[in-house]
Structures are given as structure tokens and as C-alpha cells.
Amino acid sequence: MNALIVDMTHGGKLIASEFSKLDDFNVFALDIYNTLSLDEKLSLEKKGIKFVEKSFLDEANNDNFLIVAPVHCNIDSKVDMTHHEAVNFLMKDKINIPVIEVTGVKGKTSTVKMLKEIFKDLNPLILSSLGVEVVENRKSTLLKKDISITPASIIEAWHLAEDYKNIGICIFETSLGGTGLADTGIITNIAENYSIASGGKTASQAKAQIFKSNVMACDFDSFNQFYSDFYKKTNTFGSANANVRASNIKFGLDKTSFNVEVNGLKTIDGDILNTSFDVSTFAPAEHHLNNVLGALCAALILKTSINQIKTGLRNFKGIDGRTSIKNYKGSKIIEEINPGINVTAIKKSVKMIQDLENPVIIFGGRYGVTCEEIDEKATARFFNSMDSKIQLILVDELGKSITNMIKRKYKYTDFNNAIDEAAQMNSKMILLIYRSNFSDLARR
């Protein structure tokens, strides 16, 4: 059969390579965004892959071709298989251990990190936006840093871990949906239903692919708004009416404790679980707590013991450079560093510190770190509406860009000077909101 793989930029290179190993396929590739180097192209051609131009889509738009394209790619031709579905097709007979896939708009990486702690004794293979790592005898080894979370990265993660023979579970962070490989899938939230495919689809539509998982854990609000048709296989978390919810919550910057109430949860074996237990973990604000409930829900679906869940969450201390807390010269610094920072996330972060004494916000970052850019006007409006007791420092490219829209008192400075500037304002509580990859920021 003929297979045309569209988009070499977002994982198509790996998918085309895997298809070329199958005897039944003649593989064609369309580098629709023209990002491949000459060496990369030659390497694929040596595997028998034939490169074509966009006009070839018309020729391939028939029953003799299997057209494989990512869900975000806007092409006029029929699409027989998304990249997510292609990964399932290529890997379903190779991965023979439990799989958890995590998708959503916010909180994916944090949820994966919690699951890593919960399942540490099972020697998990982990794919997240922080990289590919494997845990063996409770010791983590980073196999690759700074990897994308396109579905094709699941193939790469599996190949990278070939020498590790005792992997007991896979935990994969996947953008724009799931592959169908998962025993349980998680939708953390649809915090913003942004457009993809040149406006032809939305994030919620793309992420619906995760419901090909055997059993689902879904944020309650997202389920009600977008996914209620999948009620038979879905457990919800977050709301007072969800299957997994929190009560008696005592928020703290370093540790939050609460009671977990579980009602009518469907497990992987089809059993129904009703229980309650106490948990303490790092979850300084409501949106962090929702991520915890998502990880909890998935672990319970897989019939994980309550003691194992409690121990794993107790060991979770946040993620360096995502949400974490540090001490500096007598001040506490809450770091919220994320390539996907948007207005919703900013508002939730500020809520953590707005009632504390003399707080300072440092805000800035870079453009182009994700496909989804930030709404500058909405960000500026929010900062203008904040209580005047909250002092504001703007830094770097993003901070500079909104200075002309800020109608309140602020300082603009270089990122490297910002923490010292905040300390000079006699603040004991500094909130750093920075739009970047942590690996980029860590080099500074």
C-alpha cells in the first residue's frame, strides 16, 4: 500500500521512518512546512522514502493512498489517519505494559511528574515536555532533554528505553489528544479552547482523541462542556459533583492537605470504587490542586493502593522552573515558568499571593515558545486591575511589549536584575511569572 506522511516538522519524520520498516508500504513524505535540512532529507531517502510537493495531495486523494496527517494540519485532502492514530498503529503490538496518556491545555507536565512519584516502584518510562526519562530502582535517568510532546515522540521514547528491560508502566504527555494506546487517559483541563488548523478546529476537538483510551479521567468542567457523550468510560475530577473531589482543603505554599472523596469511580477492571482518604502534597493554589486530583483519579482507575498514592503525592515537591518555591535572601520566590503561560494561568498565579503582605510580581518572557501566543491586551488589563499594593516588575521581550499598555506604577528591568530589584522593595513574597522553556532560562 502507498502511505503519504504529511508534516515532517511535528513528528512526521519519525512516523515515516517507522512506516518504511513495514514490508506492506511504499512511503511518501510531504515536508509541508519546509523545515527539513538536506541531510535529514537524504537520510530519509536512503530508507526508501520518496519526497513529494503539496500538489501531490491531489494525486494521493484516492483509495490507493493512506494519507497520514497531524490533527492541526489544514489540508484539503482526505485524512485517513492522524499522527496520533499512526502511532497507535505502529506501536500497539510493541508496548505491552500499562500506559497512561496525559493531555490538556494546562497542567500536563505537573500531572506527569506526580504520576512518576506515584508509580516510581514500577520503573516508569516517562515522556514529558521536560524530556524522556526512565526510573529504575527509584533512580531516574534522563535519556533525552528538550523533546517535543507530539505523538511521534512516544516512538522515540520507546526506542530510547530499549536497553531497560524492567519498565513496568509508561506515562506519556501528548499534545492535542491521545493515541489510543492508554489504559487510562487524562484531560487536565480545557482552560482555553484555542483554534488550530488555521481556524478549522479547536483544541477541545483535537484533544477528544484521548477518549480512545480504555478508561478516562477528565476535568469535570471540561467533561460537561465538551465531552459528556463519552460518559460511559469517563471518571471526572475537580468539582463538588465529580467522581473524585477534595474537601476540607487547607492551602499552604509548601504543603496543602485535604480529604479525597471518591464516588462511583469506574476502574480499569470495571469495578466501582467508593472511598475517602487524606492527602498532603505540594499544591499552593486551586489549579494545582485540580492537577493533583487528575493524577489521583488516573491512579485509582488503575487500582493503585491508597498508601502508594499518598506516598507518591507526599514526595511531589513541584517542578523546578515550572511551579516551585525557593528562598532567596529572606524572601520566598514562587516560580511559574512555562512555555504555555497565558492570561488564565496568570490570574490563577496572582490569586496565590494577592492577600499576602507586600507581594511583588515579576512578569516577562519570550515569544515563539509555543504555537499559542499570549493575549497582551488582556494581560495588561489584568495587571491594571490588580490591587495597588501588589508591585509590578516587567522584564525581557514580553514585559517590554506591554509597557505602553500599563496604566499603573511598574518598573522595567533586565531579568538578571529583577529578583534583586524585588528584594529592594522589601518584599518577602515574590511571584515570578515567565513565559519560556525552563532550559532556556536556566542558561541565564
Helix/strand-derived class? alpha/beta
Radius of gyration: 23 Å
Distance between the termini: 50 Å
Looking at the structure, what is the overall shape? globular
| DSSP strand content | 25-35%
Mean pLDDT: 91
CATH architecture of the largest domain: 3-Layer(aba) Sandwich
- Strands of the widest sheet, in order across it, are 9-8-7-10-6-11-14-15
What is the domain tally? 3
Number of strands: 24
CATH-wise, what's the superfamily of the largest domain?
Mur-like, catalytic domain
Low-confidence segments, given as residue ranges, are: 438-444
Let me know the largest β-sheet.
Answer: 8 strands, mixed
Number of helices: 15
What fold name stands as the CATH topology of the largest domain? UDP-N-acetylmuramoyl-L-alanine:D-glutamate ligase
- For the record, the CATH class of the largest domain is Alpha Beta
Helix content: 25-40%
In a few lines, what is going on in this structure?
This protein has 444 residues and is of the alpha/beta class. The chain has helices at residues 8-20, 38-45, 56-60, 83-91, 108-118, 153-160, 203-207, 220-227, 286-301, 306-315, 343-353, 376-385, 396-401, 415-424, 438-442, and strands spanning 2-6, 26-30, 50-51, 65-69, 81-82, 99-103, 124-128, 131-136, 139-145, 169-173, 184-187, 195-196, 201-202, 215-219, 234-237, 244-250, 256-266, 272-281, 323-328, 331-337, 359-365, 391-395, 411-413, 429-435.
